[in-house]
């Protein structure tokens, strides 16, 4: 014979007492705490995004390779153009890779624009440890 209680609605499951532990009572919701945590998370992520943009995403320093020539077993000449703020300077990282893609040279070069100019075209000789296949500019940043 099964027990029925007047407090249990019809169709609700009846669990044997003491078998499944006690039922949880509905907990108090804390929407204010969740909202504060969400605002704090957005603030932290915004600060991280601004910092990364300042470090890596400055559009004032843009470089493009014009050509790479003079390839020998020990060097490559890289002609490149850098856009900097008017009259400013930049530090650019150049590298050379061999046919397999292995890096055979890496060097930092400082490029300065004449007063009133924003674009600087320059040539740099990279000394390599093996025969290079390509010369490239990885990035430029403020000097």
Automatic annotation (TrEMBL):
<feature type="transmembrane region" description="Helical">
    <location>
        <begin position="32"/>
        <end position="53"/>
    </location>
</feature>
<dbReference type="InterPro" id="IPR025443">
    <property type="entry name" value="DUF4307"/>
</dbReference>
<keyword id="KW-1133">Transmembrane helix</keyword>
<protein>
    <submittedName>
        <fullName>DUF4307 domain-containing protein</fullName>
    </submittedName>
</protein>
<feature type="region of interest" description="Disordered">
    <location>
        <begin position="1"/>
        <end position="23"/>
    </location>
</feature>
<keyword id="KW-0812">Transmembrane</keyword>
<keyword id="KW-0472">Membrane</keyword>
<dbReference type="Pfam" id="PF14155">
    <property type="entry name" value="DUF4307"/>
</dbReference>
């Amino acid at each position: 014979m099964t027990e029925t209680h007047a407090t249990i609605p019809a169709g609700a499951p009846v669990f044997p007492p003491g078998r499944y532990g006690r039922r949880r009572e509905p907990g108090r919701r804390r929407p204010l705490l969740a909202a504060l945590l969400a605002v704090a998370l957005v603030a932290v992520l915004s600060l991280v995004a601004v910092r990364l943009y300042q470090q890596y995403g400055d559009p004032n320093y843009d470089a493009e390779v014009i050509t790479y020539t003079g390839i020998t077993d020990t060097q490559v000449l890289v002609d490149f153009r850098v856009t900097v703020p008017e009259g400013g300077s930049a530090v650019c990282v150049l590298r050379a890779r061999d046919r397999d893609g292995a890096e055979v040279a890496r060097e930092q070069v400082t490029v300065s624009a004449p007063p009133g100019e924003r674009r600087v075209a320059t040539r740099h000789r990279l000394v390599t440890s093996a025969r290079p296949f390509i010369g490239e500019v990885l990035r430029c940043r403020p000097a």
